[in-house]
Amino acid sequence: MKLFASIAAALTLVAMAAPASAQFAKPEDAIKYRQSALFVMSQHFGRVGAMANGRVPFDAKVAAENADIVADMAKLPWAGFAPGTDKGGNTKAKPEVWTEQAKFKEGHEKLVAETAKLAAAAKTGNIDTLKTAFASTAGTCKACHDSFRAQ
Ligand code: ASC
User: What is the pLDDT of residues 65-76, one digit of tens each?
Assistant: First the structure.
């Protein structure tokens, strides 16, 4: 019983330490997953952008809430670009996602870093800090789209 409890505790720790990952029954599910994560991210990024661009009044609390969601969502889509998911659904992902994996990974790591900075910037409550971080994050989105997303 003691041994069983130790094993169970160890497995729980491993599960907690493992990075978030997702497994998919079919390519279509992976495609849907990554597109959904990117869509949710874009909705919240758009809310931050509306403030950064002066389309809606700056509300530091709302900016911070939305930026936090952007930063969390930024971690998710990449699991959905699994091998063999270049086809099997309605995807604009270019073959380069899989043929230039080092560059693609670099792009996603950059986005995770930039969105973390965006979330930190939003928490300062300073609109100029937020504007700078927003522009930088948007540039990261665009760079990756230019290389890896078909029109
Ligand atoms: C957004 C959004 C994107 C990026 C990109 C930045 O708000 O949905 O895909 O910004 O347009 O260039």
Answer: 999 999 999 999
